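Q: What would this chain look like folded?
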Amino acid sequence: MVNAEIGVIGGSGFYSFLEDVSEVPVETPYGPPSDCLYVGELAGRQVAFLPRHGRSHTVPPHRINYRANLWALRSVGVRQVLGPCAVGGLRAEYGPGTLLVPDQLVDRTKSRAQTFFNGEPLPDGSVPNVVHTTFADPYCPVGRGVALAAARGRDWEPVDGGTMVVIEGPRFSTRAESRWHAAAGWSVVGMTGHPEAVLARELGLCYTSMALVTDLDAGAETGEGVSHTEVLKVFGENVGRLREVLFDAVAALPATESRACLCTHAHDGWDLGIELP
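A: My prediction, written as structure tokens:
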């Protein structure tokens, strides 16, 4: 059985730098994850990479099986997750190439399964109880500190904190929606940060988002608006830098057995009704 202690959910190119990569198919009670897990060693740590959209980017954000993805990672031993993602900036100062490590999240998605604890029977006959998970602070404080330090160590001054608003996608925001998000005081807008973060919390995983700004969202600029081509171009220009920061963060995360953050206590006092993997 392949085991890993750290999970990374992101682009398919990240795992190419692992040593002795094993391609691990994983079955879950929620169906298949976006792809196989790619497990290997990085900086002395066993890491499982999962391409969020599949290895060929064939899964749009609203159809990602987020529950299967997080369940699959936990089932191979992962307890800490880094979630790099591409986002639009909602403030003029958060232009393309900005790295933001958010500390808050707003959910504006519409159709996604966003809990493991809905009282519906699993294929093995077990029934999870209804559980109300503490989520006031959606990201791991320890992981955030590690990500910020890793970026600064690569001379990339990150934005420390901010709110990521998550929309359904796959379309980009209208100009009116973008201006509304900015007027609310939110920092960046993306399509994949939720329910990824809350499902990680439900499984007792430490989850840290690392948001790369690829464009100014429609309401923060005066041009024709965001294009997919523009997003890919800026992401490509910064992916090497992001990979270095990500790998440094992997090396600096604490050992699994030493975790003592709020993420590990999300279900204190609750009877989950099921055994987590």
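The two ends are 13 Å apart (CA to CA).
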